[in-house]
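re: ur question from the group chat, yeah i did fold both. here u go
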Amino acid sequence: MRQKIAEPLHRVCRQYRVEGARSLFRLDLQAEFCYFCNDRNNCKEKKLKELGPAAKKFVVHWGEMGIRWGVNRTVAQIHALLYISPRPLNAEEIAKTLSVARSNVSTSLRELSRWGIVKVSHALGDRRDYFESQQDTWEMIRLILEERKRREIDPTLPVLQACLEECERSEPVDPQVRERLSNMLALFHTMDDWYRDIMSLPSADLRRLVGMRKKVRKLLRFPGLISASPLPSDDQGGK
């Protein structure tokens, strides 16, 4: 008796494979069910459609942009693929679609998961991990900026502070070096404070703030108006 066996086999189906099964049953790669599955009538593997021209262009460009941002090309391409995918994908599907090594996919997915822009989901009766991207673009940008700050701004602040302290202790003190280090440290502190204030806003408020850019630009043309009406401090905010 010959039975059709789906390819790729589900994890749950592999539990019912016995030694020598390949010699007992003929494999048909076009089958829609697996003989060893508990419910082979509903054991249909959803195949990922081939990427269209627009999707391919987006994935390739996102990978190129990733290099410019200091991110591995494969990491950026996987993120782009998961973002435009209509459903979560497993590692095998990602590797096949992008034509990259399975080990490279696993490493990239771990990095994206650490960033928080990719999360794992599971399907009933399937032991494989499926991955999906954050779909809220504003929240995605927030997470990316947070990771970039953690990697670039946070390590630089203590180094600049240590350099300035070393400059103060050295004899003779170089006023030019001290001034430039102080200016750079002040800039990084300002950027850090600005980031904390902006990122503490909910995504909806952040959208409105960005949407007010034209009004803010007009307001900056009247510095006297701004200085005459200072914003209340945190201590006075509730009064």
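okk and heres the other one u asked abt
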Amino acid sequence: MISETVFEARFSQAEGLCRMGADIRIEGRRASVFGVERLFGAEVFARDLRCGAALLCAALAAEGESLVHGAEYVERGYEKIETALSLLGGEPFEPENQPGLLELSRRIKAAYPEKSIWSFTGYLFDRDILAKKLGPWKVTQELLSYLDVLVDGPFVASLKNLNLRFRGSSNQRLIDVPASLKTGAVVLWDERQ
């Protein structure tokens, strides 16, 4: 259950997501979200920035073709959203989350091979992920093969630094995943890119 306590009408994406097969029930300022096996392509309408981004993500994961109207909302808030994808939130490398993200990553790379995929994790790349501590290694290994950059390490409030790019605290690293997998050691991503 999600409760919105600041803004009204913040669940505009629910209508479109339900058209794609999601099970979301809105009651006032609360949304109850129930898991479904899959989403299906549909014609949907973005009503604002967050709605458009949510519908685009759902369309990428859905079976079949989707048409998302209202791209101007997304373009206004996300510069070149079509060139990159980030896997974040809910800990992507938890064993139960990896199969779904693996399937999404496979589909995105097949459809858009030039797309850059980033992931954010509270785990450490060398200590936890490469040490094969996070579920079936074949799944983790294939998921890693689709990633371009991994931001690893937990956010640490005492190390918070607003001057850092793409991360919140100085203990977090920007890892060049293909180069790291090739060498077997952590290779940091060149931030000047």
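fwiw on the second one: The helical segments are 13-19, 49-61, 71-77, 98-111, 125-129, 137-145, 177-183. The beta strands are 2-3, 23-27, 30-34, 43-45, 67-69, 84-87, 116-120, 149-152, 173-176. idk if thats what u expected
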